[in-house]
């Protein structure tokens, strides 16, 4: 049995080395973290791993078709910023507006309550789907290499996200927030996790 295990280990030495290195670095991460080996850090890591797993699943489809999509992270960020407006769940609804070159443009009120949350979820899914459809059209009809096309569209989606949330902020319904993170700061300001280069002050050191 030991001989069989040694043979399998030699056959998968690269994968085994990656696992060992990951375990070492994860251990060092917890040792250096002010809240290392605590449930808050494990929950935060679980949330981040889940997001990365979703992105990996989104990346799998174009890779299986001999393509590549560099915009999946940008799409997630953009949809998250839309969600910070559409999933507030306020009973009276959420006023929507745009500020363009100093001009205040009202867009009406988005429905609140449970119906508004369900509508917001559907809208966020539709926005993500539309972004993927645009990527496909650029690649197929524009005859541009996927890596170049999605790099460009990803920059556009990040620009939309920064237009929506130039600074971390926003709010998502508390019932949804509690299921996503134990941190009250994250619940009040989902943009902290969605905008690039941002951190949660209650879970991470600055």
Overall description:
The protein is mainly alpha-helical. The chain is built from 9 helices and 2 strands. It folds into 2 domains: 1-32; 39-194, no CATH class. Helix content is 65%, strand content 7%. Strand 1 and strand 2 form a beta hairpin. Mean pLDDT is 79; it is low at 182-206.
Could you give a short description of this structure?
With 206 residues, this protein is mostly helical. 65% of the residues lie in helices and 7% in strands. The radius of gyration is 21 Å and the shape is extended.
Task: Based on the model shown, name its key terms.
about 210 residues; mainly alpha; 2 domains; two-stranded antiparallel ribbon; about 65% helix; about 5% strand; extended; disordered C terminus
Would you count the extended β strands for me? 2
Gyration radius, to the nearest Å?
Answer: 21 Å
Residue fraction in strands: 5-15%
Order of helices and strands: HHHHEEHHHHH
- Average pLDDT taken over every residue: 79
Instruction: Describe the largest sheet.
Output: 2 strands, antiparallel
Low-confidence stretches: 182-206
Structural class per helix/strand content? mainly alpha
Number of domains: 2
Strand order of the largest sheet: 1-2
Shape: extended
Cα(first) to Cα(last) distance is 49 Å
User: Helix count?
Assistant: 9
Q: What is the helical fraction, as a range of percent?
A: 55-70%
């Amino acid at each position: 049995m030991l001989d069989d295990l040694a043979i399998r280990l030699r056959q998968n030495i690269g994968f085994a080395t990656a696992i060992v290195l990951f375990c070492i670095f994860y251990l060092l991460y917890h040792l250096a973290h002010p809240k290392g080996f605590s449930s808050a850090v494990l929950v935060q890591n679980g949330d981040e791993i889940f997001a990365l797993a979703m992105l990996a699943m989104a990346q799998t489809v174009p890779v299986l078709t001999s393509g590549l999509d560099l915009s999946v992270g940008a799409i997630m960020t953009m949809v998250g910023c839309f969600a910070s407006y559409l999933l507030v769940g306020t009973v009276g609804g959420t006023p929507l507006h745009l500020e363009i070159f100093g001009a205040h443009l009202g867009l009406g009120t988005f429905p609140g309550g449970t119906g508004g949350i369900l509508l917001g979820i559907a809208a966020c899914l539709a926005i993500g789907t539309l972004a993927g459809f645009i990527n496909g059209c650029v690649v197929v009809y524009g005859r541009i290499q996927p890596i170049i096309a999605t790099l460009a569209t990803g920059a556009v989606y990040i620009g939309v996200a920064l237009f929506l949330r130039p600074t971390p902020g926003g709010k998502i319904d508390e019932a949804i927030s509690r299921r996503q993170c134990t941190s009250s700061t994250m619940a009040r300001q989902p943009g902290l996790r969605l905008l690039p280069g941002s951190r949660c002050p209650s879970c991470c050191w600055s």
